[in-house]
Amino acid sequence: MTLLEARDLHVGFASHGRRARAVDGVNLAVGEGEIVALVGESGCGKTTLARTLLGLERPTSGSVLYGGAPLAYSSRALKAYRREVQLVLQDPMGSLNPRHTVYEAVAEGPRIHRLTGERELVAEALSRAGLRPPERFLDSFPHQLSGGQRQRVVIAGALALNPRLLIADEPVASLDASVRGEILALLLRLRADLGLSALVVTHDLGLAWNIADRVAVMYLGRIVETGPVEQVLTAPSHPYTQALLSVLPESPAPVILAGEPPDATRVPGGCRFHPRCQVLAGGAAAEAGVDSACRSQALTVLPASPEAHTACHYAAR
Amino acid sequence: MSATAGARRRTALARFWREYRRNRAGVTGGVILVVAVLLAVLTPLITDPAGLDVTRATGAKMAGPSLEFPLGTDESGRSVLLMVLWGSRVSLLIGFMSALLSMVIGTMTGIAAGHFRGWFGAVLMRITDWFLVLPQLVLALVLGAILGGGVSTIILAIGVTSWATTARLIRAQTLAVEARPYIERSKALGAGHWHIMTRHVLPNVAPLVLANTTLSVASAIVAESTLAFLGAGSGEVSWGGLLRGSYDWGAATSGAWWYILAPGLCIVAVVMAFTLCGRALEAVLNPRLRGVPR
Amino acid sequence: MSLLELRDVAVSYRIPAGEVPAVRGVSLSLAPGEALGLAGESGSGKSTLAMALLRLLPRDAEVTGEILLDGEDVLAMKWGRLRAVRWASASMVFQGAQHALNPVRRIEDQIAEPMLVHGLATPAEAKRRVAELLEQVGLPAWRARGYSHELSGGQRQRVMIAMALACSPRLIIADEPTTALDVMIQAQVLQLMRSLIAEHEVSLIMISHDLSVLASMCDRLAIMYAGRIVESGPAHEVFAGASHPYSRALAAAFPTVGDPASRLAPQGLGGDPPDPLHLPTGCSFHPRCPVAGPDCASAEVELWPANPSGSHTAACVNVRSEVAP
Asked: Do the bridges between strand C228-234 and strand C304-305 make them parallel or antiparallel, or are there none, so unpaired?
């Protein structure tokens, strides 16, 4: 059963007088109890997509569906939506108001929604997030906590509203290696205990391997490959996914793509990855006779189904 | 919760006081202010206002300092000391109240202009800019003339013309606070505009507001003196009014230095004291000067 | 002879509440051309140690022990000599390149600065050298006239590397040089560093909390915990066969994609880093250690050999009992 879905979503911005197509046609679904990793480099539109799914950004076209119904943007409807879908940001120090205690930070959601039994909600959320006993932390300030504890407070703040889905933007990128696994294990435990779904936005393929059921690889505003983690990460079919996997430290033959990820104000024609594609540059695409398609023929937008899909002329030959 | 919050506030206050005490200039300013305010409050208890009445003045005209009149007398034979004491009440009252008014307008405008980025914020900023470039003194003079004399008029005239810089400052700080991720988190929790402005922005700009208000009391006192000196005063005895009187009666040319120096030095001392306190508050409260605990 | 030798280096910060030990007795040596990886979580003292090497710490830090660079004690150097050593013999690549570059000066001026300051080049030579350096780090020459805000994160890090290379130092200290960068950019920067180090025969000390990155870049690894080195040895031996439970936790934190053991099973380390003012007794790691025995709270630990040759050492009582004769 699909919980949250993006349907042919487009989000654009004006950037230095040009139009940036940050999200340029995305279908993506997160099922109930499912953890989906959205992977890509900075500037690929993954954070914009996450913000749009949260209703913090409005799509230029297409729609966000929650429980099958399109998201309404009235402030009352958005407020109700916030109880269902919650956000966890990358930098836990920045996500907590330095002047608020742990109690105030976690109680903020219940206060906004005028929930009863605030104290119990806060204590329960803190212990669910692994801060036990909760009383020990209530009066602490963010700067008195370690990085991992801060991120747990942020997660507890989201849990206090009893949401059904967490959208986590690089939840462990600014944490120490030793803490990283603990926070990821917490997300898995919340799924097991509460049936909490999650969309994890990251540039870290190891994270996807650690906790996600499905992965969607995003490049320049589009999802270029999607499918079950085992399949996509062990037998990637898109050249971009292959390159991302090949540069992981232990991998034997790194394919290092030259240059920076291109910017969303100048999306190349044809396959949007073709200027950096190692398969095209290496001549394999020409051998297969798809090189002209790569350069000139646009690819269709991948569907939001759970099966594996790849947007690549070469892979589809 | 309230008990712990209360205790927390007390420890925060204690920490603030400890740091403030280390600032020598701030302590000096604070002492001058406490003395000035105490004197102003106690004046009705220790002096007789009858001495302010021209018809009941007992001293000689323009007499120098003596035992009976430690700061000499004015053109009607009134005690300058008595007038300086009574004048401090009006000057300080106008200083405090108009600074408060300007702070309230400035803070509300600044936070709103920083929070609402659309046309509303833009309009607020244009209004602020308009007040910023208007010659303040002229505007206050005109307002005073239209609304008629009286202490409340002067408070209104000074308050309404001096909030624009505060608004600019608060807006800049608001923009900085609103860029922090915890604002995004709060929005995702479902927070509305009011919640974000009162729970996150206001507490963060409050120290700045406090320091800024202290500084603007000083400029309000100067503004009041200027208005009174230019003849647009409240009609009550104030330091500016005294200076005006000394000018009118040619105190400078007739060698009646006490008539000029007494109110003049009072203004200088109190304005300096407020400035010292404001700077000290800024240093203690402004995390950028102090370095936030990480 | 080793290029850099540390003998019992300790660093503590003076704060109102007392002395905070950040580094507590570190000894290590680095041969010319060798790359050493220094790993540990934040607060382990790894960055403090790196800063101490060039005496870049704030005034309230007290450094004791000996730091011998080419046999000369950095801690005893006069100010002028120290300035000559910084950049010219040893230079630093900081994390967060956007803050380490001056936004209002041209890139070329910033790269040329150390050469001109140390009188190693005339302005004309410096200009030529800047062009050469930019080419080496893979940036187009016209970027020299630009400013740092026109560059992307990866390009700024390349500029930082060019600056570090400017005076042809013999040692480069890189503190989390790729932490803020994307995987692909990280791979580009690491590849660049690897080739430059090989080409120029520079020694490298690289600091990171990502053990897998260090293992792929360095010859040797040293793992720090609570201000001490708890394990040190050949990179692949430490990464793949760590002897200290803390090193094992660090190595497991970044999973190998495709490894069934880590699939849906993220590995972490419970507990929090110790408070340096109240360090645990015995082995400082024992409160968080998954294999701690009853003696660990009292046992004094030191670096014991963890392989027959003694090139791999670990400060864990289990190592002593396994390898000791």
From this structure: unpaired
Domains contained in chain C, CATH given? 4-256 (3.40.50.300)
Domain range for B279 is 12-49+79-288
Q: How many CB pairs under 8 A join A and B?
A: 67
CB within 8 Å: C41 and A180: no
pLDDT given at position C167: 83
Tell me whether 0.90 is exceeded by the ipTM: no
* Interface subset of B 172-191, CB within 8 angstroms of A: 180-182, 184-191
Q: Which partners does chain C have (≥3 C-beta pairs < 8 Å)?
A: A
Q: Rounded to an integer, what distance in angstroms lies between the CA atom of residue A132 and that of residue A136? A: 7
Q: Do B185 and A78 touch (CB under 8 A)?
A: no
Q: Measured between CA atoms, how close is B294 to chain A, in angstroms?
A: 5
Confidence of residue B61 (pLDDT cuts 50, 70, 90): confident
Size of interface A-C (CB pairs under 8 A): 119
B165 domain residue, yes or no: yes
Number of domains in chain B: 1
CATH of A2-84+163-235, one of 3.30.1490.20, 3.40.50.300, 3.40.50.2300, 3.40.50.11540: 3.40.50.300
Distance from CA of C262 to the nearest CA of A (A): 6
Q: Is residue B98 part of a domain?
A: yes
d(Cα A119, Cα A103) in Å, to the nearest integer?
A: 9
Q: Cβ separation of B186 and A108 shorter than 8 Å?
A: yes
pLDDT in tens, C38-93: 998 888 888 899 989 988 888 888 999 999 998 899 999 998 888 888 877 888 88
Three-class secondary structure assignment of chain C: CCCEEEEEEEEEEEECCEEEEEEEEEEEEECCCCEEEEECCCCCCHHHHHHHHCCCCCCCEEEEEEEEECCEEHHHCCHHHHHHHHHHCEEEECCCHHHHCCCCCCHHHHHHHHHHHCCCCCHHHHHHHHHHHHHHCCCCHHHHHCCHHHCCHHHHHHHHHHHHHCCCCCEEEEECCCCCCCHHHHHHHHHHHHHHHHHHCCEEEEEECCHHHHHHHCCEEEEEECCEEEEEEEHHHHHHCCCCHHHHHHHHHCCCCCCHHHCCCCCCCCCCCCCCCCCCCCCCCHHHCCCCCCCCCCCCCCCEECCCCCCCEECCHHHHHHHCC
- To probe the interface with A, which of B173, B180, B182, B208 has the most A CB atoms within 10 Å? B182
Interval B141-166 mean pLDDT: 84
**A18-57 residues touching B, CB cutoff 8 A:** 54, 56
Give how far B122 is from chain A: nearest CA, Å: 19
Question: Is A86 close to B188, i.e. CB distance below 8 A?
Answer: yes
Residue B279 pLDDT greater than 60, yes or no: yes
CB contact under 8 A, A89 and B184: yes
- Dihedral sign for Cα atoms in the order A86, A88, A94, A100: positive
Q: How far apart are CA C42 and CA B103, in angstroms?
A: 43
Q: In angstroms, what CA-CA distances link C204 with C5, C16, C28, C83, C99?
A: 13, 36, 14, 20, 22
Distance from A91 to chain C by nearest Cα, in Å? 12
User: What's the token pair of residue C212?
Assistant: 């897998």
Instruction: Check if A313 contacts B (Cβ < 8 Å).
Output: no
Q: Provide the pLDDT for residue A34.
A: 95
With a CB cutoff of 8 Å and minimum separation 6, the contacts of A91 are A174, B181
What percent of chain C lies above the pLDDT cut of 70? 97
Inspect the structure and tell me whether chains B and A have 3 or more CB pairs less than 8 Å apart. yes
Domain annotation covers residue B70? no
On whether residue B219 sits in a domain, the answer given is: yes
Nearest chain C residue to A145, by CA: C272
